Amino acid sequence: MRDTASLLDLVHTQDVIVCVGSGGVGKTSIAAAVAMKAAQLGRTACVLTIDPALRLANAMGLQALGNEPAWVDDSRFDAAGVPRPTGRLFAMMLDPKRTWDDLVRRFAFTPEQARQILANKYFQQISSAVAGSQDFMAMEKLYELHESRAYDLLVLDTPPTRHALDFLDAPQKLVGFMDDGLLRLLTTPARMAGFGLGMLTSSTAMMFAVLQRVTGFEVLTDLSDYVTSFAGMHAGFRDRARAVESRLRSPRTSFALVASPNADTVEEAIFLYRRLQTACMPFGGFIINRLQDSALTTAEAIEEWSAIRRSPEVLSGEAGVARRLVDNFEDYEVLAAAHATHVTRLRERCPGPHFWRTVPAFETDVHDLSGLARINAHLFER
After folding, report:
1. pLDDT mean values, one per 10 residues, the chain (382 residues)
2. What would be the CATH architecture of the domain defined by 7-177+244-294+340-379?
3. Where are the domains of the chain?
4. 3-class SS at 89?
5. Which residues pair with 257 in a beta bridge?
6. How many CA atoms lie within 13 A of 61 on its CB side?
7. pTM of the shown model
8. Sheet of 355-360: strands edge to edge?
């Protein structure tokens, strides 16, 4: 694959495209649009999201999405006035709890072992409340679907985290919380006899006290039960975490960084880009979403606008209306100039042989397949 592969090249050739970016930049719509384009090119594509607002479900014309891929049938495209794809489009919304439970059942040696783990309060905490559990399950589900060989392209809409790349560290973090070596050290009966909770260092005792108060369960008892019930399964989880990371680093995976053209998200995008580079992840390029372009792109347009500003009455016979129209247009031009400045900054700070695509700010939010088609008209225009 060429270093300067376009987004269209990636949709044609890659197994996985990961859409990253800070919250509120439109990753869900972009990810869905990219998957739809792959289906229109004849590929079997699936988009995965953790979006709690169900925007993707609405965009796919579905009432709800579950933890298994759902086919977006041809009638949905007909209803939206969008040409039917020659491939197939699937969509799913990740349920982290169900994915955790399925993973435990996969690695448990017996159904009884799985039942004991799923009922353990410590496990319930790390599978739902520990930072990174949602991110890890997103990666796990991505890996599971890839290994099924049922899809040509998987497009991941990454979890809405503060830095949007926390999921890169999630496997190691979660394996650490499940490390039986550390937990055995804390819960071995022989040690507990002379090194019980009352004998722990003040900082460790405080940690357990806080855990017990926050979680509402007997920390050491549940840790001990967890260690016993989880026996022999840690190696499987560690191997799985390594396999997930290897999948993310594959040359058949590409990261697309989605940003909005404002100061905060551009700074976040610069940070994310550098983090991807430092981690040596396969970077594809940038998608600038909701860009306000200037309407004054030619000398003739600038001259005409200057004339209107001098004589607003040409727009309307009512002076007040004419003035409001002029002010409104000027507001958009100020916004367009600010957006251009931010995009220039992003390009200067993130040079390299990667693609750049822009999607304009639409009058209405994208909420259906026709909206995704509008996005693709810009993402994949020649």
Report:
1. 78 96 90 97 93 69 80 92 96 82 85 88 69 68 91 89 61 56 47 43 50 53 61 70 86 96 94 91 96 90 84 75 84 94 97 94 89 96 75
2. 3-Layer(aba) Sandwich (3.40)
3. 7-177+244-294+340-379, 179-229
4. strand
5. 20, 286
6. 19
7. 0.80
8. 70-71, 88-93, 44-49, 153-157, 16-20, 253-259, 283-291, 355-360
